[in-house]
């Protein structure tokens, strides 16, 4: 039986076959079996350019892919350079402001320190306080402005700490509370490294104050509240432990903070503060207020995190120091004013159609913002969760100043009288 020979391909067919295999390498078809290739996964070209082309369009040529990859690399390079310039400008602006504030120490010691209450009646001296207290004088001025309405003696801290140490040594100090304290300390201003359990120079001071605070609270039937370590830490940084304990107790005794730290017994007061905040938000940012209502985003989902730590878990330390200066001077009203200012800086991000995305923004966990930060080389600091949103001291204070157009202290007083008539 005669078998017909297999015809050899024509030159045209051979060219078509080669063209077919050449094009298959562009669109991702497996190469011929006799030409194996080593691959460690998708190339940068495939990740960045080819995979992003809509399926209904013809594949790009290799030249086009390479050109787009080059353009993308150039854009990323320019973006990283721009971010480095922005960080350098921000650091320079911060240094310049700190220097200008510290240079006013002589002015403060002459004009404000001798009688700060009288000084605050003069607008230009009040503006100096709003611009920030010099670091050297911050502890002293905070103590003066907070006062000692609880009439705590200088021995109060030592007595409470002695009781706490006896409880610790006898194993009667609640183990779950001690665990919460240790966990809180680890999360407190981690970038400063001064409260680290192993090598932080102020770790023991902070732990002592928190344990003493638990003992003092137990006399009132109250327990530990997560996040209070931020409040204690801010005082420990600025003054000795005995003074820090007295200042902390008196600050938290102010009605707003006492309510947010009051647990179940303060639930009615807490709801009243939420209604006050909602009213202020509706007055100042009606579109955000309406969008929050549409997605059932109530103040209870984000305001406690801001108030409990007085913004220390969401904003950079240097920004919070100035915010604390004004909160200690002006009282509860400025806590709410700053909370509205934070939403003002975030406003462009607060119109997502999904509730989940809105909550991610408010928690500082918005995936798109985090990805942009990673691509552009921005350091992501989850102890200052809003920093990668571009929230700086400058942007926040701009919003605070803009609020003067509608914010009225009489409005705050009226809302307090309406919602908390027994104050």
Automatic annotation (TrEMBL):
Q: Which stretches does UniProt call biased (Polar residues)?
A: 11-27
Stored InterPro entries: Rab-GAP-TBC_dom (IPR000195), Rab-GAP_TBC_sf (IPR035969), Rab_GAP_TBC_domain (IPR050302)
The Rab-GAP TBC domain is annotated at 132-331
Organism, scientific name:
Hydnum rufescens UP504
Q: Please report the name of this protein according to its UniProt entry.
A: Rab-GAP TBC domain-containing protein
MF terms per GO, please? GTPase activator activity; small GTPase binding
A Pfam family hit: RabGAP-TBC
Segments carrying the region annotation (Disordered) are 1-55
Q: Where is the composition biased (Pro residues)?
A: 1-10
């Amino acid at each position: 039986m005669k078998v017909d020979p297999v015809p050899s391909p024509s030159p045209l067919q051979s060219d078509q076959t080669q063209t077919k295999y050449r094009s298959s390498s562009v669109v991702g078809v497996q190469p011929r079996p006799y030409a194996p290739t080593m691959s460690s996964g998708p190339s940068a070209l495939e990740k960045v350019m080819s995979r992003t082309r809509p399926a209904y369009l013809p594949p790009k040529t290799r030249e086009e892919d390479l050109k787009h990859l080059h353009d993308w690399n150039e854009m990323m390079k320019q973006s990283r350079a721009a971010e480095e310039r922005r960080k350098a400008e921000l650091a320079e602006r911060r240094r310049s402001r700190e220097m200008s504030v510290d240079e006013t120490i002589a002015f403060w010691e002459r004009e404000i320190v001798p009688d700060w209450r009288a000084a605050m009646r003069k607008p230009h001296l009040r503006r100096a306080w709003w611009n920030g207290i010099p670091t050297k004088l911050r502890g002293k001025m905070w103590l003066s402005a907070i006062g000692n309405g609880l009439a705590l003696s200088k021995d109060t801290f030592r007595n409470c700490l002695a009781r706490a140490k006896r409880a610790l040594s006898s194993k009667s100090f609640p183990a779950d509370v001690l665990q919460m304290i240790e966990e809180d300390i680890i999360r407190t201003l981690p970038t400063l490294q001064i409260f680290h359990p192993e090598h932080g120079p102020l770790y023991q001071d902070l732990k002592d104050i928190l344990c003493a605070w638990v003992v003092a609270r137990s006399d009132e039937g109250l327990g530990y509240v997560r996040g209070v370590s931020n409040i204690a830490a801010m005082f420990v940084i600025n003054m000795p432990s005995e003074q820090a304990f007295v200042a902390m107790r008196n600050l938290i005794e102010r009605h707003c903070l006492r309510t947010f730290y009051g647990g179940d017994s303060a639930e009615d007061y807490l709801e009243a503060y939420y209604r006050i905040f909602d009213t202020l938000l509706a007055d100042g940012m009606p579109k955000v207020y309406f969008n929050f209502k549409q997605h059932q985003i109530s103040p209870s989902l984000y305001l406690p995190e801001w108030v409990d730590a007085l913004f220390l878990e969401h904003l950079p330390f240097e920004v919070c120091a100035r915010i604390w200066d004004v909160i200690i001077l002006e009282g509860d009203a400025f806590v709410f004013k700053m909370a509205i200012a934070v939403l003002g800086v975030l406003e462009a991000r607060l119109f997502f159609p999904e509730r989940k995305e809105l909550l991610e923004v408010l928690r500082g966990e918005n995936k798109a913002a985090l990805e942009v930060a990673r691509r552009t080389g921005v350091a992501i600091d989850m102890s200052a969760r809003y920093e990668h949103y571009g929230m700086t001291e400058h942007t926040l204070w701009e919003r605070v100043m803009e609020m003067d157009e509608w914010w009225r202290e009489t409005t705050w007083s009226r809302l307090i009288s309406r919602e908390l008539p027994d104050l």
